[in-house]
Write a structure and sequence with these properties.
two-stranded antiparallel sheet; 245 residues
């Protein structure tokens, strides 16, 4: 039986062949264990799937993993749920434990992309300790470095058509008629968080929290700074260059 509960006989041959070819291609790829660091709007979300596919890695977003562990009622998930119900933060040890569990999945065989963790030096140290036990280490930390003023322009210019999720940008991808969706003619809106005040406080928190983490990995010699203000295809090329070293 396949893990999804579907008999192998019931899976179309073309799907099996595609998966076999993918695994064959992946087998020759070097293992990579990566951390992506960057403020909101830096382009991590654009690059992450490209890196994942290119290097056959699994994407570990700690928020999603916590929710998955809670809904699957794993021992760690049950502990996490208890903490959340009390309104407490989930402990670093629990989060590292959930990452440890996730790393053992077949999809993480060639390595992983960690996104949203570690946010503090203590978390980075705990992550390192866990990886040492596994006999591995972080290969590269990709720092999506970008000036706050560029982020402000990127984020505060975003407008959304709520029912379809279509997004526009006043400067980079404006609607045909200002404030109106191209397809339906309905009004566009901005997310509550996409305003200069909220963004400033989010960026201040990011810099305070994350700078020590960036310094920590810098001292270990695994940090690579990307020019995240450049167009996405240029950043992709930069990422590939860093990861081929």
């Amino acid at each position: 039986m396949a893990s999804s509960g579907v008999a192998l006989d019931d899976i179309p041959s073309v799907d099996i062949m595609t998966e076999l070819l993918r695994r064959f291609k992946c087998s020759s790829k070097p293992d990579k264990r990566l951390i992506l660091v960057g403020p909101p709007g830096c382009g991590k979300g654009t690059q992450s799937p490209i890196i994942k596919d290119e290097y056959c890695l699994c994407h570990l977003a700690t928020g999603d993993m916590l929710r998955a562990a809670v809904s699957a009622k794993t021992p760690l998930g049950i502990k996490a749920k208890e903490a959340m119900e009390k309104g407490e933060l989930v402990s670093d040890d629990l989060v590292v434990g959930i990452i440890d569990e996730a790393m053992k999945k077949p999809s993480c065989q060639k390595g992983f992309i960690l996104d949203g963790f570690p946010r503090t030096v203590v978390q980075a140290q705990k992550l390192d300790e866990m990886l040492v036990k596994q006999g591995v280490k972080i290969d590269k930390v990709l720092d999506f470095a970008i000036d706050d003023s560029i982020l402000e322009e990127r984020i505060t210019g975003r407008w959304i058509h709520p029912s379809s999720g279509r997004t526009y940008h006043t400067k980079f991808a404006p609607p045909k008629v200002p404030g109106v969706d191209d397809v339906t003619g309905e009004p566009l809106m901005q997310r509550k968080d996409d305003n200069p005040e909220v963004l400033k406080s989010r960026l201040a928190a990011f810099h305070t929290q994350t700078k020590p983490v960036i310094d920590y990995y810098g001292k270990k010699g695994v940090l690579a700074q990307l020019h995240a203000e450049k167009p996405p295809n240029v950043v992709t090329t930069e990422v590939q260059k860093v990861l081929s070293q």
